[in-house]
Amino acid sequence: MARALAEVQATVTVAGIESDRLYPLPLQEELARLLLETVPCRHQFAAGHDGFLLETEQVVRSWHRYWPTSTRQELMSYRQNKHRDDYDAK
């Protein structure tokens, strides 16, 4: 796994969830260490592993803190166009 992750050329956000029992924080920290370019952030969700699905405000705040506006706008534009492309393909 370490060799494969060392090949990643992108900056990756590793969002650790302190109450996650399915993928515990130490494993998330190891993942962050193995990646060359990481932006680590931690969350405490009452819902544990699936908390990011329910605690969207906290996730969005982290996203805004770590990703520049232009990157967010590019991602949203990509997602909107991707959905449009998927719809047009049907």
Topology:
Layout: H1 2-6, E1 12-17, H2 25-34, E2 38-43, H3 51-54, H4 56-66, H5 69-89
Parallel strand pairs: 1-2
What would you say this structure looks like, in words?
The chain is α+β, with helices and mostly antiparallel strands and 90 residues long. It has one domain. It has five helices and two strands. It has helices at residues 2-6, 25-34, 51-54, 56-66, 69-89, and strands spanning 12-17, 38-43. The chain has a two-stranded parallel sheet. β1 (12-17), α2 and β2 form a beta-alpha-beta unit. The chain is flat. It starts with a helix and ends with a helix. Residues 85-90 have low confidence and may be disordered.
Question: Brief description of this entry?
Answer:
The chain is an alpha+beta fold and 90 residues long.
Which key phrases capture this entry?
single chain, 90 residues, alpha+beta, two-stranded parallel ribbon, 57% helix, 13% strand, flat
Structural class: alpha+beta
Total individual domains = 1
Helix tally?
Answer: 5
- Mean pLDDT, as a whole number? 76
Question: What is the N-to-C succession of helices and strands?
Answer: HEHEHHH
**Low-confidence regions:** 85-90
